[in-house]
Amino acid sequence: MSEHTPTGAQPEEPSGSEPVRLDQGHVQGTGGVPEQFANPGLPPHVLRNADLDEKAAKRAERQVALLFLVSIFGTVLFIVAYLLVDTGTQVWVPFTNEMSLSNLLLGLGLSLSLLGIGLGAVHWAKTLMPDTEVVEMRHPMRSQDEDRQDFVDTMLEGGESSQLTRRPLLKATFGGAMGLFALPLLVQLVGSLGPLPRNDLSVTFWDKSENGKSDKLRLMRDPENTPIKPADVTIGSVFHIQPEGLLDLHHGKLEQMSKASVLLMRLNPKDFQDTDRGRKARSWGHEGIVAYSKVCTHVGCPVGLYEQTTHHLLCPCHQSTFDVTNDCEIVFGPAGHPLPQLKVGVDSEGYLIADQPFQEPVGPSFWERG
What parts of the sequence cross the membrane (predicted)? Predict the structure, then answer.
């Protein structure tokens, strides 16, 4: 008796096909292995109503088509809501309080589009497509040419047996549902890119087309909103400048400031480099006073640091450095272009003005600029 055998119990000798219990201890096997396992076979195939009754098959066909039509309706609802419904319109929905009508219709439309295709495909497969059990014996990995051709024939036969060719209503509604389902994805992709930039980066408040006034606007201190004379700009000083009229705006002020902001400083005219860029920078200034865009050409951070001894402008975000003596040429950092220069002059009253707007786009590089 084994120490694992309960008291008063006799161990039973297991047969070759029975499992060994934990309370039987060590068991000596016979070493016999069955030569072949019995094939359990397949349960008898049960025919569906659609297999026995053509009326049931037609009813299933109409049900599947209805589900695909639901998908088409959902897709159309999504597109109409995306294009026509105002995002600010609110509606009351039970259990959720108020919510955006646009979001509600977009969600319902996409849900119906997905649900109709999914339920239609499942119902189609369950009621009309063949459901006979198939057993495939193992064979070499690479089939013979005859078998490969048989596969092609089987696929074609499957398409025929799915009754897609016999039932044009299914083909039309399924094709419509699958074809239209891609439209919500494309609409979101294209619509979410926002408006095209057009000339938004090339035109600022310094341009007449933006301010509705003369091109030669006065340079105004920011935030004092007062004009400035050349005598006010001493060597080493820096002024934050906005175009005349911008600080008086009530709408769109921040957007305009983000493009039109300018840094104004004065150098000794002898400090400009004797290069084409240096001579251009000096000629576009007034008695050594020069003005450059404050928007870094890397990612648009404000260039707000001026080193008087080196005449360098520094962007604090990623340390792009521009040399004012050479028309703000890049001397360090990831910026892709020099800062655009604003050509300045003096009006009849002695105040500094912009002789012309920026002659190149301000801000970061973009695909049209290179």
Answer: 64-84, 104-125, 169-191
How far CA 46 is from CA of 58, 130, 131, 161, 342, in Å, comes to 20, 12, 9, 18, 85
Partners of 341 in beta bridges? 292
Q: How many domains does the chain have?
A: 2
One domain, residues 221 and 293:
yes
Q: Are residues 174 and 247 in the same domain?
A: no
Query: Using a CB cutoff of 8 Å and minimum separation of 24, what contacts does 236-241 make?
Result: 236/266, 236/308, 237/265, 237/266, 238/263, 238/264, 238/265, 238/306, 239/263, 239/264, 239/265, 240/264, 240/294, 240/304, 241/291
SS (H, E, C) 283-318: HCCECCEEEEECECCCCCCECCEEECCCCEEECCCC
| Cβ contact 263:239 at 8 Å | yes
CATH number (domain holding residue 332): 2.102.10.10
Structural domain contains residue 21: no
Neighbours of 120 (CB within 10 A): 24
Does any domain span residue 23? no
Residue 175 and residue 55 share a domain: yes
Q: Residue with structure tokens 């450059």?
A: 292
Tally of CB atoms within 10 A around 354 = 24
Tokens of 41: 């076979």
Contact 291, 264 (CB under 8 A): yes
Residue 81 belongs to what domain range?
Answer: 49-134+142-191
Residues in CB range of 219: below 8 A, 6 or more apart:
227, 228, 239, 241, 243, 244, 262, 264, 291, 344, 351, 352, 353, 354
Q: How does pLDDT run along the chain (370 residues), one tens digit per residue?
A: 444 444 555 555 545 556 656 666 666 666 666 677 777 777 888 899 998 999 999 999 999 999 999 999 999 999 999 999 988 888 988 887 788 999 999 999 999 999 999 999 999 999 999 888 877 777 667 778 888 899 988 888 887 788 877 888 888 898 889 888 888 888 877 777 766 656 666 788 888 776 667 678 999 999 999 999 999 999 988 999 999 999 988 888 888 888 899 999 999 999 999 999 999 999 999 999 999 999 999 988 999 888 988 999 999 999 999 999 999 999 999 998 899 999 999 999 999 999 999 988 888 876 555 4
